[in-house]
Amino acid sequence: RDEAVVRHLFAVAAGLDSMVLGEPQILAQVKQAWTLAQEHRTAGPVTGGMFQGALRAAKRVATETGLGRQRVSIPSVAVADFASGVFERFDDKRVLLIGAGKMAAETLRYLREAGARDVTIVNRTAGRAVELAARLGARPGRYDRLAAELVTADLVVSTTGASDPVVTLDLFAAVEPRREGRPLVVLDLAVPRDFDPRIGTRSGVWLYSVDDLAAACDANRRSRQREMPAALAIVDEETRRFMGDLHHRSTAPVIERLRAGWSETGDAELERLFRRLPHLADADRDEIRQAFDRYAAKLLHPPLVSLRDESRSGSPHGLLDALKRLFDLDD
To answer: pTM for this structure?
Structure first.
């Protein structure tokens, strides 16, 4: 049961138990939970070691597998796989967001990570555009000036809930000459579509719909799924490592009593020997003490190695009990 708990935490931290396989935000949430536990002093050294192990497992999964390399959300794929396929950089591009909902906000975050700086948001309800722009460092625009915004835009992300196209073919045809042939990428993330599909056939226009993006997301999900066996193997390895360390730690009291007992016996014998040989120089006494210490260490080595090896496959209760009886160690 204890091992199952550890394995579950490690798998969660690595994003293997998430609805979106390999979701990196899960690790941030695990870190936050650990920080809260530390602040409220509700976690001890064992829990601390378990969280450190979880972070180590997550890092290994991220670096040793391809689980998190393929994006699987619509906004992330829109920016990383489609817009980046046309534009090499975004810091010199003018971005227009049509709509101010959750999808627009998430897409804008990915665009910011990609370097976008000049972002304008328009929405039928102006207040929502102003609010989102203030929250994410963009500029609110006027919806009734949509045509003018389309003239200057390099990248358009549209996410409205309109039932009819927001940008019709006629509207774009009126805007097109004023764009003077500049490339335009349109990420139409709305359902139904905000852009007339025929706009995608115009020269210099790359128009991608949710259907295009969903197909890429599905392909990326399948790619992530193929990485699962390798990721699970890492989680299992790190779980065994942690449990072995935990079981070995449980042997510490017995090891300390064993060493203390042998040290006490050795010290008593040395004192008896030195009383019988009072003529020994200090250097000779030190040499004899070191010889005793080496001898004791060599005698202790086999049982300690056995404890360590036994700990790797579970708690070494049987071996601990045998050592206690053999060397008369009190609990």
So the answer is: 0.58
